[in-house]
Design brief:
It is a single chain. By secondary structure, the protein is of the alpha/beta class. It has a single domain, classed as Rossmann fold. Helices cover 44% and strands 12% of the residues. It has a five-stranded parallel sheet with strand order 2-3-1-4-5, sandwiched between helices. Helix 1 crosses helix 7. The protein starts with a strand and ends with a helix. The mean pLDDT is 88.
């Protein structure tokens, strides 16, 4: 069987993590994240327990004690301003590529934010799914960072997923999308 890779992209609060959880739960895909090493580093820097959930928007948008900075800001600046700009633009792309090549058969990449990330997934035969949500609950200021700008939609290769209804409707749409993509495997 060939490798199945889905890369999820969308603005903060669009439903990327929710979609990834649905795909993992229903189809057994492993969740892979460009930001996972950054999240581990932020936990280490601030002495946070491994139970501290930096995927939870309320936690991510809360202030770091003793500062006027959110955990989201720390993640964005460590991942992009330090990792991509000061060390190597493809730092996070390379670590995810290695994991996809050697560790996993079926994977959903939860946080495609830059064109090179999407290009790597496409090159590996994966599909990019753009999640759109009009009334998302993104925290103030989260859209201003370049990591939240999103990537260009390519109509010939990418897919769109509407998340403008309730959770049950969104879950059905995600399941239908995966079955449509990989019908021979999951049909």
């Amino acid at each position: 069987m060939s490798r199945l890779i889905i890369g999820l992209t969308g603005k903060a609060g669009s439903g990327k993590s929710t979609a990834a959880n649905i795909i993992s739960r229903n189809f057994g895909f492993v969740q892979v994240s460009f930001a996972e090493p950054v999240k581990r580093a932020v936990k280490e820097i601030f002495g946070l327990s491994h139970w501290f959930d930096l995927n939870d928007p309320q936690v991510k948008d809360s202030l770091i004690p003793g500062t006027d900075v959110t955990y989201r800001h720390a993640l964005q600046t460590l991942g992009t301003d330090w990792g991509r700009k000061m060390i190597a633009e493809d730092l996070w792309v390379d670590q995810v590529r290695r994991r996809l090549q050697y560790d996993y058969l079926n994977a959903v990449v939860t946080d495609v934010r830059f064109p090179d990330e999407a290009a790597m997934i496409r090159k590996m035969g994966g599909k990019i799914v753009h999640i759109e949500r009009r009334n998302r609950s993104a925290a103030a200021g989260t859209d201003s960072h370049e990591s939240e700008a999103g990537i260009e939609f390519r109509p010939r290769t990418d897919l769109k997923l509407d998340n403008n209804s309730n959770l049950q409707t969104f879950e059905a749409a995600v399941i239908r999308l995966v079955k449509d993509l990989y019908g021979g495997v999951y049909g």
